[in-house]
């Protein structure tokens, strides 16, 4: 008998302010008005949105940055480039967004898109997870710790809402991304296709436990 996944149900019902409030407990720089987080020798401001709250301008930016960074990878993938399908995935009603800016009035630098969900395991029970759908950073902001900070925030979300682990899918040919995730301690997940006779799949499933 599978467990009821109460943690996922509670997390899915959480407001963006509730998620932000929990994140604020990890940073002494956070205030009631802004989630200010350390970024190397500087600071950044993190914004949290549910899909239904995402401003139109940010929605446009999210898609354009995704297309700019990822279209070429999808074009050579097994499934190809299907913008309509990708829009549905990114802007699903369960999608959550974390956006980073240098300050509250500056242009956005990068974002994550994630959902609270359940995933299969090699055992009978499913795992409660935060599944990372996208991590995208502006070209001009890459190499400055933005991606690492977004992943740190994501891992805090997973722990705050008592998930079992955080998961993501990455193209094998996107070697820069694979190296980045592995450097942060992500490993091949137990449901990766390579464990089920699908070594030629063009993607990997990685995960990181919530410890």
UniProtKB/TrEMBL annotation:
Its EC number is 2.3.1.257. One of its GO terms (molecular function) is histone H2A acetyltransferase activity. Residues 60-209 form the N-acetyltransferase domain. InterPro entries: Acyl_CoA_acyltransferase, GNAT_dom, NAA40. This is N-alpha-acetyltransferase 40. It comes from the Eukaryota. It catalyses: N-terminal L-seryl-[histone H4] + acetyl-CoA = N-terminal N(alpha)-acetyl-L-seryl-[histone H4] + CoA + H(+); N-terminal L-seryl-[histone H2A] + acetyl-CoA = N-terminal N(alpha)-acetyl-L-seryl-[histone H2A] + CoA + H(+). It is found in: Cytoplasm; Nucleus. Belongs to the acetyltransferase family. NAA40 subfamily. It is an enzyme of class 2 (transferase). GO terms for cellular component: cytoplasm; nucleus. Keywords: Acyltransferase, Cytoplasm, Nucleus, Transferase. Its main location: cytoplasm.
């Amino acid at each position: 008998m599978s467990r009821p996944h109460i943690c996922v149900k509670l997390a899915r019902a959480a407001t963006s302010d509730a998620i932000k409030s929990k994140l604020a407990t990890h940073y002494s720089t956070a205030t009631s008005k802004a989630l200010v987080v350390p970024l190397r020798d500087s600071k950044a401001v993190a914004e949290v949105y549910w899909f239904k709250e995402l401003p139109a301008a940010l929605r446009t930016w999210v898609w354009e940055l995704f297309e700019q960074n990822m279209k070429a990878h999808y074009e050579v993938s097994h499934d190809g480039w299907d913008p309509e399908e990708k829009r549905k995935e990114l802007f699903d009603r369960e999608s959550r967004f974390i956006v980073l800016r240098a300050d509250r009035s500056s242009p956005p630098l990068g974002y994550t898109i994630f959902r609270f969900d359940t995933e299969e395991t090699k055992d009978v029970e499913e795992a409660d997870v935060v599944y990372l759908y996208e991590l995208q950073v502006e070209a001009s902001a890459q190499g400055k710790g933005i991606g690492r900070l977004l992943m740190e925030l994501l891992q805090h979300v997973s722990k705050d809402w008592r998930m079992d682990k955080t998961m993501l899918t990455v193209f094998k040919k996107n070697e820069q991304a694979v190296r980045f995730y592995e450097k942060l301690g992500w490993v091949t997940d137990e449901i990766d296709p390579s464990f089920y006779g699908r070594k030629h799949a063009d993607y990997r499933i990685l995960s990181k436990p919530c410890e």
